[in-house]
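User: Hey, my collaborator sent me this sequence without any context and asked if I could get a structure. I don't really work with proteins. Can you help?
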Amino acid sequence: MLNKPGEPLNILGLNPTYGVQINIQAIGNAGVACGSSQEFSVTLNILGTPSTGDSAYILLPQGVSFLSNSYIPGINAPPGPAILNALGFQVPLPILSGGGTMQFSFKVNLGAEAGCNDQIILAQTRVRTEAFCQSLGAPCEVYISTGEALFNLVIEHPQLSASNANLTITNGIVSGSLTVTNIGTINANGATAQIWRDVDGDGTLSANDVLLQTLQISASLAPGASVQLNGSLSGLDSTELCNLLFVLPGEENCACDEQVFLLDDFNLEHTALNFCELQSVTLGVPEKMGATYQWLPTSGIVCTNCPNTVFIPDPNTPPGLPQTLTLIETSSGCTVRHSFEVTFGAATATIQGNPVICESTS
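Assistant: No problem. I've predicted the 3D structure and written it out in structure-token form, which is a compact way to encode the shape of the chain:
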């Protein structure tokens, strides 16, 4: 057993017979980046004779993992493999009469969380011994630390920022784009953004939210460089637009924190309408409770603040000239700009193929 925070354990008979001097060093560049690996060497000066069960422990911080089969024995070290545990791994100490030197090396992988909170690798030796736990009133097996060494990891993470988030719906297809900029000092190994449906509407990424699409590039992004991520998704209507999030996930971008952007400004292009003659046209969208509406321009619009209205074109409208009408829908700080393109008649033009044409046109 190891003593943990809580009520003190009154233990009798703890008399370790030796100590250990430990040195842990990085092999090569110690200033490494997230997503890479780092090799370490460990040297132990054992000042006495170890017993069976005594071991050297390497305890790794969050986000740092032991690279499988990377343990390499050196002077007096056991051949391996290293014994894995929940916090890292351990290596048995050699039974050296009177003590001696032991050396070994190992590698670790540095994940997205590496160095974000805990940056310390702990090398520790422990002896296992029998003692009497007075608090328990019974004999007990305990481990006593006989030596420690710390290594402070310096891990660099990419720093990304996002801007110009935009979604456009055309004929039911949602096209999304986001500009990602590397504002850090090291290269970013690509960039990933995600589009989520904010199910609970709290403006943050929650457990019940639904991932709709992932936008990404794999090319390296140098410091100061920007890239636009693009993608599309289907199955959304205008009533669902105001509950979407753009997310720069932490793990996928090898960053310590995720970044969440609430999308609140959208452009929705409706299917273009064509009529052979000038006529009144009904335009609009399903009414959304609590929303306000404004048509622009107002000329020819029968109801300028209704979700559905009738558009009466100017009798002098030239044939074939597209007219764009915009309905601005606002609710709870979210704005959707509905764009309707309407064309009456057809301008004189050379027609190729076999399209449907209006009467009296050629």
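In plain terms: Confidence is low (pLDDT under 50) at residues 1-12. You can pass these tokens on to your collaborator as they are.
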